[in-house]
Design goal:
10% of the residues lie in helices and 49% in strands. With 139 residues, the chain is mostly beta strands. Pfam families: DUF6093.
C-alpha cells in the first residue's frame, strides 16, 4: 500500500469519528461607523464549512489530548490548563485560521457542547495528517 492510499484511508477513518457538528467564522469589525447605533458593526463570515457547501455546519471532533496539565499563573492565581484539539476534515477546512470562532451546533454524546464557542489558537501541521487539527480555547 502506498503512503497516499494509506493517508486516504486514514482520513476516511478519522472523519467517521467526527460525529459532532460545528460552524467556524471569521469575525471582524467594520471600518465604518454605524450611525444608527453609534458602534462599529461586527462582521461574521463563515469559513467552515465552505460557503460553497450546502450544509449549514460541518463535522468536527473535540478532544483534550494533553496528558500533562499545565499550571498557568494569571494575575496571581494559579490556574490549571490543558489543550483542546478540534479535528476537521482536511479537504473542506483549508480557510480556517488563527482567531476564527468555532460554534458547536450539535453533539451526539454531550448536549452541553451545543452553543459552546471556541477560539482557534492555531493549527498543528502534519505531513501525514488524517485531519486538520486546531488548538482551541473556550471563549
Amino acid at each position: 500500500m502506498s503512503a497516499t492510499s494509506a493517508l486516504r484511508r486514514g482520513r476516511a477513518a478519522h472523519e467517521k469519528l467526527m460525529i459532532d457538528r460545528c460552524v467556524i467564522e471569521s469575525v471582524t469589525t467594520s471600518a465604518t461607523l454605524n450611525e444608527a447605533t453609534g458602534n462599529y458593526d461586527t462582521i461574521r463570515t463563515r469559513v467552515y464549512p465552505p460557503l460553497s457547501s450546502l450544509d449549514a455546519d460541518g463535522p468536527c471532533l473535540l478532544a483534550f489530548n494533553d496528558t500533562v496539565v499545565q499550571q498557568v499563573d494569571a494575575a496571581g492565581q494559579i490556574l490549571t490548563q490543558n489543550t483542546a484539539i478540534l479535528s476537521l476534515p482536511v479537504a473542506t477546512s483549508t480557510e480556517v485560521a488563527k482567531d476564527h470562532i468555532v460554534t458547536y451546533t450539535a453533539s451526539v454524546n454531550d448536549a452541553d457542547l451545543v452553543g459552546v464557542q471556541l477560539r482557534v489558537e492555531g493549527p498543528q501541521h502534519e505531513t501525514f495528517g488524517t485531519a486538520r487539527k486546531l488548538r482551541v480555547e473556550e471563549t
